[in-house]
Predict the 3D structure of the following.
Amino acid sequence: MSRALVFPGQGAQYVGMGSTLADLCPAAKQLLASADQVLGFALSQIILNGPEAELTRTDVSQPAILVTSLMALETLKAKVGTIDFKATAGLSLGEYTALVAAGAIDALDAIRLVRLRGQAMQDAATAVASGMVALIGPDEATAQKLCEACAEGEVLQVANLNSPGQVVISGAKAACERAIAKAKEFGIRRAISLPVAGAFHSALMAPAADRLKAALAQTRFRDPLVPVYTNVTAQPVTSAAQIPDLLVRQLTNPVRWADGITAMRSAGISEFWELGPKKTLSGMIAQTAKDAVCKNLDTAADLAAF
């Protein structure tokens, strides 16, 4: 059975995540301590004790989720030894974790990058009143038509293609409100405003993309040991030279998560191990590739499944 490792993105955080992994696995605990040193503040204490409002901040939640997901990976390695996997992928922020797992970037470099990424995204979100809306029911074409009808000269675009019938759009606050009001006219069952800082994966993130591009240019990447299925193309990347541009483009382009899962399934991947907080990705995968096997490692109790 061919296996892929997949990693969650922003929104999966919760206070106390990773605590049982740190207690169980010395390598996971050391990773927390290393993150504190690299970042220059006690990320470990915010992860383990909150407050929730602090952990939810974009510039904190992104390194927190990455570190917690890598702790899950270290704990699994300690339990089973060598993990046999043929590909990796991650949702938005999770793509950085996937690159670490595939050997394409060092963990501490990834932690630095996602801290900057979170700060840049937060600043871009603050600059323009904006948001994101989850749509239940439509395909990409219908979501795009809704965006075109409601933009009225403002930014409004498809941002996430999570699973069949689950699309997120992103843009200016007023345009998002118009989309919520008009969604049913397009046959969309529900339109729900998401509690996010701003319009991620839209043109409004261009200033963040520029800041990230400069940092990526100073970062050393290696060819991944296994293909990494990226959000922008939903296709495998095997060359270090391709990675920085894709990470920059990810901030302003749709996350093609469902397409990536379909591509992995077509390539023979039949089992997905989700490593990190919550089980959000497994639900999306089950809706996209109904015959796939999913396992999750969030807490030490989950290790029994492996």
Observations:
- The CA atoms of residues 55 and 303 lie 25 Å apart.
- DSSP finds 13 helices and ten strands in the chain.
- The first strand starts at residue 2 and ends at 7.
